[in-house]
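Box 3.1 A note on notation
Throughout this textbook, protein chains are presented in two layers. The first layer is the amino acid sequence; the second is a token string describing backbone geometry. Keep the layers aligned when reading.
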Amino acid sequence: MWALEYWPLLIWGAGIVIAFFVGGWRLALVVLTLGVGSNAYFAGRKAERDNLQKRVQQIEENRKNAYDEIDQRGTDKSDVVERLRDGSY
């Protein structure tokens, strides 16, 4: 049932109707504007959280790939010293 999935929308709509009957169209407009603004704010926060999670996942994947590449290289003492000097690790 879609009403269970979109319950905040139903509450917001009921608030607009109640505001219209209590305070007229101006109060209903205020409630409508607050609802749209808060919806945009929370959608933006969710999008930023998703983007941050994707970036963290990409960084972890790059780090894992780099560690795997380092593990696959043959290392000897002179090679390690040379990598430490030039910063390529």
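The helical segments are 2-5, 7-23, 25-72, 77-86. The chain has a mean pLDDT of 88.
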